[in-house]
Design goal:
- There is one protein chain.
- The chain is 41% helix and 20% strand.
- By secondary structure, it is an alpha/beta fold.
- Among the domains are: 257 residues, TIM Barrel (Alpha-Beta Barrel), CATH 3.20.20; 57 residues, 2-Layer Sandwich (Double Stranded RNA Binding Domain).
- The strands form 4 sheets. Strands 1-2-3-4-5-6-7-8 form an 8-stranded parallel barrel, surrounded by 7 helices.
- Helix 8 packs parallel to helix 9 and helix 16 packs across helix 18.
- The chain is elongated, with a radius of gyration of 30 Å.
Length: 529
């Protein structure tokens, strides 16, 4: 089994993604998570380039206890025309106190002439001198040949001379970089094979995603002979991002049988991806392969029916291998198999061939035609299923409601809601003020119900979304309202649709409160047992 060394650069290259700014604490937390996962190398940043990275390496030297991973500092070769020992970049790298260092050098003659403004020969000396100096200081040096693939197309002889210079200086791994991210997969494979035939040293691959081919190019490079793969978690990185390790690693492991992480560690992949996304404050893409919320979500009835019979029919891998799970989505495309399976997941017993399954399916199809969508609003879907069964308890019944919005002279806009509910044999008439019409409705509902259902005190609304379903109808268009609610233990989404935003909000609010009661009642039932 071929061993592939995993090199993560989320803390350095990933931090260059637009919208990301890791604190020192963030970087420490991510490093520990990557270590738990078994990543071989963690690139911590560029010491000497900014105070934050200096602080990180100083703190890491004292308190970052890695069990599996090797922390790596990153920098460049010495500057043109300077002595290596006195170069500020070399000093910063050594000050980081990491055993492993990665330095990059120019392998494209265009950059040497146009960016560095030096000679091709001086650039070769810069590479070899820098690697040799750091190696003599007892460091394990990895050399990133920046822009290697572009350089190889323009001047293959010189591109090869740059990595030979690094090898002669003592570099342990030579990393071929597609820095502009425009390489084609077939060409990446060919170039790695050609380099492998003339350079007898371990090779690595570092690819950017500007042509949306970084994952494919990285895998092709490994197949062609690279022993180290570099990338970031969730594909974070400058411009269009870096190669996404979250997609690369399970493909190498489960499709190609290569040794990167253990099967045990792969079970934490989804959790690690979401953990890092949370710290980065970047919403994880639902459609992200392997770990996304939709990666193993099935919507069409034909698909669901087939998956229930044999998961391989519509899943390329068992989701449990990467710590994810299968989801059955209910929509107008669903069949009775989807309804029965989803009901079972939610703890509602409905047989596939039952009348209830047919009723629910018809109801879902009709509601989706009106503009409802239950993929996110699973609490409303749960209630729809429960209401189709004989065991559903109606906690309250709405008789009528009224909302008044008034703008008083020189004063704020005032929202007032009046709610008339039937609770058991009693009818309660309640009035309440709020910051807006939906808040006023919520407050009036609570005032009516909290005396009988005191657990409502711990519940609050945490998100509110409105979607206009047909912009062409302008102000007469239907709107879909999604409401997220939460208590001390859970959060849930409900949905309402109407031409009137207040009515749509009322429907979603009513479901939200009713779901809370059903949930609490279910917990009480378990305690009694």
């Amino acid at each position: 089994m071929k061993k592939v060394y995993v090199y993560d650069t989320t803390l350095r290259d990933g931090a260059q993604f637009e919208g990301i700014s890791f604190s020192v604490t963030d970087k420490m937390r991510i490093a520990l998570k990557l270590d738990e996962l078994g990543v071989d190398f963690i690139e911590g940043g560029w010491p000497g380039s900014n105070p934050k990275d200096d602080e990180f390496f100083a703190k890491a030297a004292k308190s970052l206890k890695l069990k599996k991973s090797k922390l790596t500092a990153f920098g460049s070769t010495r500057r043109a025309g300077t002595k290596t020992a006195s170069d500020i970049v070399m000093k910063g790298l050594l000050k980081a106190e990491t055993k492993h260092l990665t330095i990059f050098g120019k392998s494209w003659d265009l950059h040497v002439k146009s960016v560095l403004k030096t000679t091709l020969n001086e650039n070769l000396k810069m590479i070899e001198d820098s690697v040799k100096y750091l190696t003599k200081k007892g460091r394990h040096v990895i050399f990133d040949a920046e822009h290697f693939f572009d350089g190889y197309e323009d001047n293959p002889k010189y591109a090869l001379e740059t990595i030979k210079a690094a090898f002669n200086g003592g570099a342990k791994t030579l990393v071929l970089c597609d820095t502009n991210g425009g390489g084609l997969t077939s060409r990446v494979f060919e170039v790695v094979e050609e380099v492998k035939s003339v350079i007898k040293a371990p090779l690595g691959i570092h690819v950017h995603n500007d042509a949306d081919m970084a994952v494919a190019n990285s895998i092709a490079a490994v197949q062609a002979g690279c022993e180290q793969v570099q990338g970031t978690f969730n594909g974070y990185g400058e411009r269009c991002g870096n190669a996404n390790l979250v997609s690369i690693l399970p493909t190498l492991k489960f499709n190609l049988g290569m040794d990167c992480l253990s099967k045990f560690e792969f079970k934490d992949l989804t959790e690690a991806s979401r953990y890092i996304a949370e710290i980065a404050n970047i919403k994880q893409q639902d459609s992200q392969p392997y770990v996304g919320r939709s990666a193993f979500a099935h919507k069409a009835g034909v698909h669901v029916n087939a998956v229930l019979k044999n998961s391989r029919s519509y899943e390329h891998i068992d989701p449990a291998k990467v710590g994810n799970k299968r989801r059955m989505l209910i929509s107008e495309l669903s069949g009775k198999s989807s309804i029965a399976e989803k009901a079972d997941d939610m703890g509602v017993k409905i047989e596939k061939s039952s009348k209830e399954a047919s009723t629910i399916l018809t109801h879902v199809q009709n509601l989706e035609k009106e503009g409802y969508q239950f993929e996110l609003a699973e609490a409303s879907l749960f209630l729809l299923m429960k209401r189709a069964s004989d065991t559903f308890k109606k906690y309250f019944e709405m008789k009528d409601f009224r909302v008044i919005i008034e703008k008083r002279k020189d004063g704020p806009i005032v929202s007032e809601a009046t709610v008339k509910l039937k609770i058991g044999d009693k009818v309660k008439h309640t009035v309440s003020l709020g910051d807006g019409p939906v808040h006023a409705l919520d407050q009036a509902l609570r005032k009516s119900l909290v005396e009988i259902y005191p657990s409502l005190k711990e519940m609050h609304l945490s998100d509110f979304r409105v979607r206009v379903l047909d912009e062409r109808s302008a102000t007469a268009a239907k709107v879909r309202v999604l409401i997220q609610s939460q208590d001390s233990k859970d959060s849930w989404w409900t949905v309402g649709v109407s031409e009137n935003i207040i009515e749509a909000s009322w429907i979603a609010l009513k479901d939200s409160i009713e779901y809370k009661f059903v949930k609490d009642n279910k917990k009480k039932g378990k305690k009694k047992k």
